[in-house]
Design a protein that fits this description.
By secondary structure, the protein is mostly helical. Helix content is 69%, strand content 0%. This is Glycerophosphoryl diester phosphodiesterase membrane domain-containing protein.
């Protein structure tokens, strides 16, 4: 009996199907990155062109920027969009539409999993904020003494004392929750990426399956966030040292150095964000080692910097606007409540507002980044061939 062809175009015993994953095998390793696989371009290596010709129709060239994608012959009229996006290179509107559709398709994971992860992180941040609040209270008390010594109007001093009672707690909660939420955000985005990848072929994953597949990668995702933070911090230290050296030579040169350092810092952050943008979804969906995934994600963003930067900046602006619309009323509401209640109410309000804004950012940006990852691989690696085959096998 002839062994049926596998989805990568070869023959043999099919490997377990654990999601749409990486070429050449649905749900296995990326091209040239899996154990025992040959590098792309090597003799006998799998390529997008070796994928099965569903409906006796050959797909277009699996290269970035390909045009003229055609629906394979024999497929139903809507088979090119079995899930939340068309299975072809995506436009900006289709990426945003797919991001919103992902929430509607599987809210239990996109909303539920992300909310649980970030809520736990916010709770841990609230605990960490206690010693931070004590530190800020000591520092603020010294500042209060200085203000009281020079205060001429008792009414102004009373107003200052009312506000100053809130400051240490606000700083403590804001810093504590921001740090823990920043570390947990990649894990939440990993859950969103997994759900989006399955929604593409109209499949839903449960909360338990999401944790089984994303949970073992949690330290990879957190390590990625730490690696990005360390890179930004070291570059900032370098810029500060450079400016300090320029001031030592001449004050005017130092002022120019501040301007150049700010531009250089913004350019570096933008470059780093884009070049590491696809690493988080790759860590969840391709299940390789940490450094292998870092290299893999770095290569995926090669040659598409400006497109990804534009989409990322536009998405960040949209998230910021939505965050202001949602977060501002909460902040003002809790600030007003602080007049009638204890400062603890304000601290709780700050933590909840930070959590809501982080949840919005994680869900929307996580979905957009996951779709950018899928779009890039459809353009470069013919991933749409595998997705069509996976959708047909459901």
């Amino acid at each position: 009996m002839t062994t049926p062809a596998s989805p990568d175009g070869g023959s043999g015993t099919p490997a377990p199907q654990n999601g749409w994953g990486e070429p050449p095998r649905y749900g296995q390793y990326a091209p040239g990155h899996g154990p025992g696989q040959q590098a792309a371009g090597a003799p006998g290596a799998a390529s997008p062109q070796s994928a099965p010709q569903y409906g006796q129709h050959q797909y277009g060239q699996a290269q970035y920027g390909r045009q003229g994608w055609e629906q394979p012959g024999g497929l139903p009229p809507m088979a090119d969009k079995p899930g939340i996006i068309p299975l072809r290179p995506l436009s900006l509107g289709e990426i945003y539409d797919g991001a919103f559709q992902a929430v509607r398709h599987n809210p239990g994971v996109v909303l539920g999993f992300t909310t649980i992860v970030l809520a736990v992180a916010a709770a841990v941040g609230a605990v960490l904020s206690l010693p931070l609040t004590t530190i800020f209270a000591d520092l603020w008390s010294q500042f209060e003494d200085a203000v009281a010594t020079g205060a001429a109007d008792p009414a102004d001093l009373a107003a200052f004392n009312q506000v100053s009672g809130l400051v240490p707690g606000l700083y403590g909660v804001a810093i504590g929750t921001s740090v823990t939420l920043g570390l947990a955000t990649p894990l939440g985005m990993g859950g969103v990426a997994l759900s989006v990848s399955e929604s593409v072929i109209d499949k839903k994953v449960s909360m338990g399956e999401t944790w089984r597949r994303v949970g073992p990668r949690w330290w990879f995702l957190i390590a990625l966030g730490l690696l990005q933070g360390v890179a930004v911090f070291l570059f900032a230290v370098l810029m500060v040292a450079l400016v300090a050296g320029m001031f030592a030579l001449d004050d005017g040169l130092g002022v120019l150095g501040i301007f150049l350092a700010l531009l250089g810092y913004l350019a570096f952050v933008a470059w780093l964000v884009v070049r590491t943008l696809l690493m988080a979804p790759a860590m969840v969906l391709e299940r390789q080692g940490f450094w292998s995934t870092v290299v893999r994600g770095w290569k995926l963003t090669r040659g598409v910097f400006w497109r990804m930067l534009g989409i990322y900046l536009l998405s960040a602006i949209l998230v910021w606007v939505l965050g202001q619309i949602i977060g501002a009323p909460l902040s003002y509401g809790f600030s007003f409540a602080s007049v009638l209640a204890s400062p603890v109410v304000v601290q709780i309000g700050v933590a909840l507002t930070t959590l809501v804004v982080a949840l919005l950012e994680t869900i929307f940006m996580g979905a957009v980044v996951a779709l950018l990852y899928i779009d890039t691989r459809m353009r470069r690696e013919g991933l749409d061939v595998q997705l069509v085959a996976a959708a047909a096998d459901r």
